[in-house]
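User: I'm designing a mutation panel for CSON011022 protein and want to avoid disrupting the core. Could you give me a predicted structure to guide residue selection? Please restate the sequence first so the numbering is unambiguous.

Assistant: Good idea. Sequence first, for numbering, then the predicted structure tokens:
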Amino acid sequence: MQQQPCSISELTCSNGKCVPLNKYCDNVNDCGDSSDEPRFCTKCNRTYHGTIGLTYNLELHRPKEDKIPYVCLLTFTASGGIHGDLIQITIDSFTIGKFTSYTQDGCPDGYLQISEQSRISVGGMWCGNGWGPSIIYSETRTLVLAVKLFKLSRDSEGYNFDFRIKYKVLPKDKAVVRYGGIKYEEIIPWSDSKEIGSQSSDAMNVTAYLEHFYGNYNQKLDKQFYHDRSISTGYASNSHVSGRKTELTTGRSNRYTNYTEPKYYLGDLIPGTYCSRIFSDCDKKACRLQSPNFPGVYPRNLTCYYAVRQHEVPPGKHALIIMRQPKGNLIWINSETQATIKSKSDKDKFVPKIHTWDECDNVQDYVTVYDGYTTRDPIIMKFCGGGQALPASISSGPELLVEFTTSPFGTFTKPHPNNINSLNGFQLEIDVRFVEQKSPTYAKNKRNCEFWIRGTGHGILESPQHSLPPNSTCLYHLQGTETASRSYEQMQLLRRGNSPLPSRFKVWISVYKFEYGPKYGLTDENALLTQHEDCTGILRIWDGPMRELPHCKDADCTREEKPYSKYSQNQTHLMTRFCRGSIPRSCDHFATNESLARPCTLMESFVSSSDFVTLELRNTETTVLRPLNFKLKYEFVDNMQDGLPIGNNEYDCNRKFISLAVDNRRGEPGIFRGVKNIFYFGRGGKVNMSCIYRFEGQRGERVRIVINRISTGNRTCQSKIDKDINRSYCFGNSNAKLQIMERPWHESILFPRSCICNTTNTSELPVIFTSTSREVEVHFTAINMTPFDDPDNMFFEGTYEFLPGPKHCKEVRRRNGPSGLIDLASGEIECRDRPWLIEAKPGHFLYLRLKGLYLRRFNPNAPQPFNTSIRNDTPMRCDTKGRVIITTGDGVSITACPLDHDTSHRHVVEVFSAGWNRRNIYEDNKFSPVISVEYLEPVDGNFAVTWLEMQRRLPEGMPLEECQYQCPELNACVNSTIMCDGEIHCPSGADESFTHCSALLKLPTEILAALFVLMLVLCCGCSAYIYRKIKRKCRRTSVLQQRLKSLSSMDTAVFDEKEN
């Protein structure tokens, strides 16, 4: 039977036997014929292969003094397939010469150099005494170890040479720690200490030692640094020697099943370099930055550059590169701290942590993070050490450069002295964040962190979303800018007053939060134990422009220490500053619930004295280690308003527009708009708002108002135009509305002419109103405002014109008196639409009658439901296009169709002045008892309105003298002059009744009394006379009857006698 040839990982003995290559020249006759132990053999200058699953021991014996200098090359190759793809070398015992320095002539007596055949040589050296097992993983198929000893010496601990290693080959698909694809499932620690023959099968693969590392070491870490077993499946499969297999068993159920990390993208190696790599578009890849030969020992004398760039950025976005590692066990870079541990007590006291900046200068193994693509860009982080989560380093743009530097000389030390096995090097996660391109969330200039925010609105301002290098200063220039010129009236006012042009804007700052983290490595609880004001990270708010930094360098710069600025001339002063441990004015309740929180008050915020505010954010330490975050709201308070102030306050929202002050040279209507000052609205803390816009024309002028745009917030309200009279009325929730008011005569009250609101964009616009008088007011009011009400959703815009009125309308249409009649069709037809004003004396009311058809009624104090339509309330047809509008002092308007005064129709419209129907008669009437009568679209005809002045009838028991003349059906007291004047004023005609109008009843009381007595006497005389006459007559009648009776008796007797 023909014997199969030996594999590439085996040595073919002279007798045909196959033994592992590491058995060659080990002073043991493994072949049986001593062919593996020839004379003068050496393990050096040989190539070693292996088989997956097997671990091979290899030891170099101390050279003799006559062999010094000693040079030995060991080449390990993974040939693919069952012979693996990668090399793992475990250094069990290591002593070569002595180690003196990391940087200069650190290995004078000898050293070990490690190189990979397909990579350039970097020339790093290891020497001295090694601490326990150190593991080396190749990145290519061939790994070369060069052992050199120049001086052999001996001390109390022995000779300066000892070299024992284990090597094995690994399949690449099992190297999940480096290449990803880690499956989350829990396994128990394991190891195999059995030996087969002379071969030690302590094939402790990465699975075992990583599990041991997590299972023991993480128990000593703080909970915030605990990491799940994401790499617990390790690098290789189970150890297998001579057909015997060590199995992995577990008594616990898998907690992480059906989940596998993606394969890592490790970048593209830059040609001609050992380890520099380029990464691109990491938003779509699982990018990982790894030290060379991770997770094993990294080479010496090395500088690696990892350039990360995001090429594909969505439109309107800006890319930020994020580098972090939340799992502290995946980072360990040699530091001086662990190198100085000599005793067991030192090991027990050792706590692994991230070291930064100067702490890494002793060993000079460190990672440097640049905010950009070159080493000329700002450094935002420099660290070494490990065993602690690494905070995120965020670039300000789509590029990030990471530099990994190692010193030329080193010695094998355990990263974690309390653990047998641990990782070396680092693995860093890369992510991409997209922010709005046009936003102050990132500095566009890496060397100058400066933001300019100009405008007329408001917004939220937060600290930069990227990391800031140490000793950085970011300036935020907030300036309100004018987008519209000042009105002609404002300019005229300023010229007359010789005053400087006031600032249109002020800046309102409300700070929601300010957070400055404790020193890196300290928790908030520990920091509170030594709480004091820490201004190494500070936010200052300056009132005014400050292009240059203030001269005051002290963190406690006070308001009196005003910095000099080339723009401010000592006018810039400090409004406030925020430091860790200080409690300034803030509106922190808004940070928790911005949508439902109450508005910030002026006691919780800051308002500038000009249109410029500068925010200065300064940090002494990098924000990677000590996050410096703030969030505030800025508002450019727009003080510019159209027109002139009614009072002396320039910023009052009550404005006036005077015809004499209006520039009519362009012949265009003037524009007036609602107030934009946020402090008049709910978001500025106001509950109710009332702004008046008064238009004053010259004598003989009229005012034309056109409302083009309006919004009244989130209330369900709309306005509709009554086509009959071309006026607008509000329907729905009219808590916010605009009213057009007219003053018919000088010093009279205002009467509402139109109501406009719009929250559903269904209102009928534009609304056009032309007055008949020379004074009009527009009232923009809102009650019960909420934090959602601001100038963005509550505004209006309109135009105004002063137009010439009819020149021949001289009639004074202002009436008063106890009663009267107004002929609506009198005068020129152009003047008939001028309103009539009927006024009552104080304490009196008016009763008005119009023969006509009642059409509709609007009461601004009781608005109609939202979906109400405008319709007539009478079924009869109105034959004229003219309309009479009767408006009372409380704004109630009645629209009627006038009928001829002599018509036989009985339709009458009756109107009482405001306050007549109030329940409490003793309550003061807050509305004026006047009535306005308008005749719109006038036509010829006999149309008349009558009015009656009256008082409320007093309750029972009051003196009758107080109410001598009454209209019983009105239950009112009237003036005596209307009684019996030939005109019917009371609806029932009681004022013209006989009982009131007899001439006899008008005589004086004395005469009436005398006449009464005379009449009484006459009546008594007449009665007596008549009585006597009747009595006498009755007496005569009685005598005659007696005689007749006597005669009748005599006649009867005669007759009787004759019969006999």
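For picking mutation sites, this is relevant: The chain has a mean pLDDT of 81. The chain has six domains: 42-174, 259-337+353-436, 449-459+470-483+503-519+534-548+573-639, 641-805, 809-868+876-957, 958-1000.
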